[in-house]
Amino acid sequence: MFTPSGFAHIGAIRGPLxxxxxxxxxxxxxxxxxFTFVINDFDPVDGLPEVLQKDFSKxxxxxxxxxxxxxxxxxxxxxxxxxxxxxxxKSLGIEPQYLSSYDMxxxxxxxxxxxxxxxxxxxxxxxxxxxxxxxxxxxxxxxxQVICEKCGKIGTTRVHDWDGKTVAYTCEKEMVKWAKGCxxxxxxxxxxxxxxxxxxxxxxxxxxxxxVTIEGAGKDHASAGGSMDIARELVSQVFKINEPxxxxxxxxxxxxxxxxxxxxxxxxxxxxxxxxxPEVARFLFVRTDYKxxxxxxxxxxxxxxxxxxxxxxCYKAYIENSDEDLSRIFEMSQINNLFAKExxxxxxxxxxxNYIQMPNVDIFKKYEELKGEQLTETEINIxxxxxxxxxxxxxxxxxxxxNLQLSEILPEKVKELSExxxxxxxxxxxxxxxxDDPEKLQLALYNLTKELKIDAKKAFSAIYISLIGKEFGxxxxxxxxxxxxxxxxxxxxxxxx
Length: 497
Ligand SMILES: [Zn+2]
Fold this sequence. Notes:
- This protein has helices spanning 14-28, 53-56, 77-91, 101-106, 111-119, 121-132, 199-210, 219-222, 227-239, 278-287, 303-320, 324-333, 349-355, 363-371, 377-397, 419-434, 438-451, 456-468, 476-481, 485-496; strands spanning 36-39, 97-100, 145-146, 157-162, 167-171, 185-188, 195-196, 217-218, 248-249, 252-254, 257-258, 294-295.
- The strands form five sheets. Strands 4-5-6 form a three-stranded antiparallel beta sheet, with no helix packed on it.
- Strand 4 and strand 5 form a beta hairpin.
- The radius of gyration is 31 Å and the shape is elongated.
- Helix 16 (419-434) runs antiparallel to helix 17 (438-451) and helix 16 (419-434) packs across helix 18 (456-468).
- With 497 residues, the chain is mainly alpha-helical.
- Among the domains are: 121-199, no CATH class; 300-402, Arc Repressor Mutant, subunit A (Orthogonal Bundle); 412-496, Arc Repressor Mutant, subunit A, CATH 1.10.10.
- Bound molecules: zinc ion (ZN).
- Zinc ion binds next to loops.
């Protein structure tokens, strides 16, 4: 299930993905299996992303499906955010049959469940009390909210009388903090999309209506006394259906913190597309046991290069049939076509990161040499894809020491240069001016260190400190000659002052 009240956070991918794995695994065994995913578009708008607060506050309390889309081209608020999440899931190879909760209610598919729930209102309250232990029993309480006929809100109505055909309700002014009702009272049929069951009853009602046999849930729903426990009781005592097989899966964490879409912190699901190639993004979720918290902290860390390395390791296991689990993980991370089991050259992500910072390196030529034969079309595509994501990583996520671009201003670190390092720089300026061939320049620079009796490592680090503010860098001569000489010489002169 997904409630389309904003952009899904990246951790929201975990649920659908775990179910996709089960679906595909069952399908492979020849089972007749259906994978459904419910869009909770009948839920009320009970909070808004910050950018929408100004224009959409007037819709708080309305069913998500009855609120206009924030952008043109979508039927509703719900459709806009659902569509965004569906696209992300599709890009990761997750294509369930989508069901709209609003439509199912409207079509009368929940009528029976509503009747059962209203008839068993007292029992449901007993179950709430017994399982979660907190809620006090409320006289006349009914497990339903209807859409107010006067103002259109569903989040503000309290239903308090059920005569077997209609319910009485009041649109309460102060019932919830996030929306204000209009005060209207009336009677209405609870069926045919006029009303909706509250979440804890709505969930098992979906199991009954759809015929769900397997459904996992995030750990927070599965905690003792939580909505999963209540749903189980309702299944056996109220709805009288078979309990679906359920399993809790762990949280998705960023820097040790659980992501919350309402606070807009961290990454959105849609960001995954600009962070990782689809197969590697899928791999991130497939690789981690659903029973373990998934830690993902890509900013300023080696998380992404490490993830690529791990992906490549599983690829190797797949090709060589060396480790069944890793091989299977690789297989299940593929999206459209399974890799042919022929050896494909996977360029290491961190090498690509280095190469793209050296314009004089022809990456494709380099890999052809390494491979010893022509690259296949697949290999060329993979290299191109990794170049794309290496550029993104360098620009947005890499630790600062990875960016090897010429710095615009004189780095602070030049203050730390010793007199002998400065002398080396001064003398190397002439060598740079004279040499256009990187091999020759590299040799000349090396000979200069001998001539000055300066430690070669110290000498070369003076070059990197002056130009990129770091102690290390790519091979000096090649690095130096990729820029206009005038610019390089000017920067080195400044550094020696
Ligand atoms: Zn109202």
